[in-house]
Amino acid sequence: MIRYDEVPGLTGEKAQRVRALIDRSSEIWDMPDDLDQVRAWEEQIAACEAEGVPHLAASGRFGQYSVYSLGGMPREALDAYARLMQIVGRYGDHIHPGNVTRFLGAVADLVVTVGEDPSLPRAQLERIVDLVEQQTIAHGFDLSHVTLARASLAAEFGEQDRAYALLDRWQGIGSPDWPPFDANTVTREVAILEAFEPALAAETLMRRFTAMGVPPGPIDEGREDLTQLVLLRALLGSLWARAGRKDLTARIGDELVAQFGIDQLARIAVIEDLLVVLEHRPEDARVAADVGLENSPLDAVEWRLHAALARSRGLEDPTGEEAMLLRALAEEAAAAHDARGATDIHMREVQGFWFADLPWAGPATPGVDADPEERAERILRAGWIPRRTSPVTIDEVPFALKDRYLELYGQAMSVLQADSDEEVEALVASTITRSRELRMPVAEFIAQLMCAMRAHASGDHAALVLCYAEAQHAQAQSPDGVDPALEKAAARLFLPVVLIALDQPSIPLDRIGAIITAEAALRAVTGQPATPIAVAQLARAAHLGEVDGIGPLLEEVQVLLGDESEGVDPFDVHLDLARILAPLDPGAVPGLVADVLQSSHDPAQLRAAHAWSTWAALREGRPVDQDAADVLAQLEQVDRDLDEFGDLPRSVVLELAARVPDALDWAVDAALADVTPGDPSHLDTFAGAARGLLANAPQDERGPRLREDALALAAALDRRNGDEVQSRLLRERFFPAG
Q1: Which of 12, 390, 432, 726 is least crowded, fewest Cβ atoms below 10 Å from its Cβ?
Q2: What pLDDT score does 368 carry?
Q3: Could you give the CA distance from residue 128 to residue 266 in angstroms, rounded to a whole number?
């Protein structure tokens, strides 16, 4: 085994391996405090034990204990701490003394955090304290932490005489770790007195404030211990209430709110104390109660918090379901704490103070046999969820229901991988219902976005437009709660949705306009680029033949593109503009694709720009045979996959193919290979293929049929639009001879 002080003297490969373990420990400490860190520690501990470095293995166990303790996993935390004590017991002299002191000293905090769970047996807690005491004596440290731990346990178990005796012994040790007038020391002292004599605890705290230089009234905000002093001042108000001095309690509440404001105060002070000092300020108390409900596991651990919440909500609505459920939970929790210590101290406080003057109308709602998560959801849906002024986001879910919210989030994401349309429909419907019950619209947004993406991939245009519009609506309810990656995905899908919708006769123009309007409102909040909005408006104007509006809209696109060049791909925008404007003004195309040809490095963009420029030259009557042959050669190089030309209309390639000997037949086959007959999205493809076949292969029966399909689709678009623009443009470009 390698001692901590032997590490600097290591040489060779051993030194390199130990150095790597040290570096890895630093990396793990920097990880978020979650189960991934716990698993990383487990791997690190095994590696440290294999290398014979108990100093680092002990640090890993302490890291696990810390994560479990902070994460509300008491059994796991206690197990990790017990394993840490095993390492200290076997290899304590191999561990840095400062770390040993830190590890052993944690027992005082362990019994008031982990030990608050009444499901952990008294004997198990006392046994761990015994182990720590043995190691503390063996290493020659003072017993202040052990003594305080035993005093805290005595208070939890209702043993007043023993708790007071241990408190006196702890204070008599005079440990430098517990300065007599330090805020942390005072907090621990008062917590023990509070369990038995609130008036004595209040008087003691007043004296400690004086010794600490903390006068009544506003607290000096320049003090380093400001946060702890706020906690103690709220605690003092709560103690005075339990001692019958509610006048002092109300004064403290007014002073705290005046100095810090209720929102900040609710994030600093202990909620059960704050609810007491704000009892005469019901609106502020409601804010504090909701913070408490959001952060509580709503289990049998925090009996005093649940009693305070039950009291606060009961004062506002004594017969309401929320108050009655909280009352049952508080009584159940207090009984569990009492049962462990064979005492009645917790239930006496609940009944004698928290519920003493409440106008309860009947017995508490039964909760003993309820599933903990189901009961927690009932409590939150009875008050916290309806009272919220903003939707729940995935980053701010209530602690008691975090698993249910995460499950809902995962269910929404799973829509994309569903096996069938029926499964998609069921998943989306279920997610919508659940997201509205739990008021997390981001789940509904994700489900609809995944539905839209799935529809886009499968060519279900009606579902694409419908799902995207529903996703917009859900996102608008919680724009700040959407993951940035999903926000960008939705933003990228917007323009394709509009362009596809314009091609669908079955989709009304007012629905398309509503999608554009909704997107503009969304982007004003999210900050996503506005260029696609202007492009969509331009596409709509061009589709309807509104020539007068095209110039200003095109100018707006160019201005926005200059400001947002980092948020959008300018080459994609120019290619989109070419597609939109080509039917009305073929002469605009060369200027739109010139930058793409000159500066883009994307093969698909370059292929599309080359095809557009060649097509524009063809329309102007210039010789293009060689350039057309080059375009078709590029198509051959990508296995005749027209999708490798980006979002280029297939008619462009088909018109060029008519200029290349023996190319038209296979180009038409390639263009029609994956196209559903009659699909409105491929009106341009049908028209391009029809023109080429009618002119070059009149015997091919597909030519007339495709022409009729194209004309029918154009007529359907005209009926929707209330004009004849699409039919006119179709004949002018593809069938000028009628």
Answers
A1: 12
A2: 47
A3: 34
Name the token pair of 82: 């017990």
The pTM (predicted TM-score) of the whole model is 0.87
Phi and psi at residue 22, in whole multiples of 5°?
-65, -45
Give every CB contact of residue 175 below 8 A, 6+ residues apart in sequence: 142, 144, 145
SS3 for 665?
helix
Residues 6+ apart with CB under 8 A from 300: 117, 118, 119, 329, 332, 333, 336, 337
Residue pair 153/126 in contact by the 8 Å Cβ criterion: yes
Minimal CA–CA distance to 69: which of 22, 39, 33? 33
Amino acid at 312: S
Q: What is the pLDDT of residues 504-536, one digit of tens each?
A: 999 999 999 999 999 999 999 999 999 999 999
Alpha-carbon distance 115 to 556, whole Å? 65
Inter-residue contact 490 to 442 (CB < 8 Å): no
The residue with tokens 């996959």 is 641
Question: Long-range pairs for 420-423 at CB < 8 Å and ≥24 separation?
Answer: none
Q: For residue 115, what is the DSSP state?
A: G
Helical residues (DSSP H) of 661-724, grouped into ranges: 664-672, 683-696, 702-721
**Enclosing H/E stretch for 274:** helix 271-277
Q: What percent of the chain has pLDDT over 90?
A: 93
Residue 459: Cβ within 10 Å count:
15
Q: 545, 542, 536: which is closest to 514 by C-alpha? A: 536
- 369 vs 513, higher pLDDT: 513
Tokens matching residue 374:
């189901």
For the cut 60, the answer to whether the pLDDT of residue 729 exceeds it is yes
Provide the residue type at 518 as one letter: A
DSSP structure string for 277-322: HTTT-HHHHHHHHHHHHHH---SSS-HHHHHHHHHHHHHH-TTSHH
Positive or negative CA dihedral for 332, 159, 119, 301? positive
Q: What span, in angstroms and rounded, lies between the C-alpha atoms of 128 and 135?
A: 11
Q: Which two tokens stand for residue 591?
A: 């200027």
**Burial class (CB within 10 angstroms; exposed 0-12, middle 13-18, buried 19+) of 316:** middle
CB 99 within 8 A of CB 55: yes
Distance in angstroms between the alpha carbons of the first and the last residue of the chain: 94
d(CA 575, CA 594): 10
Are residues 18 and 7 in contact, defined by beta-carbon separation less than 8 angstroms?
A: yes
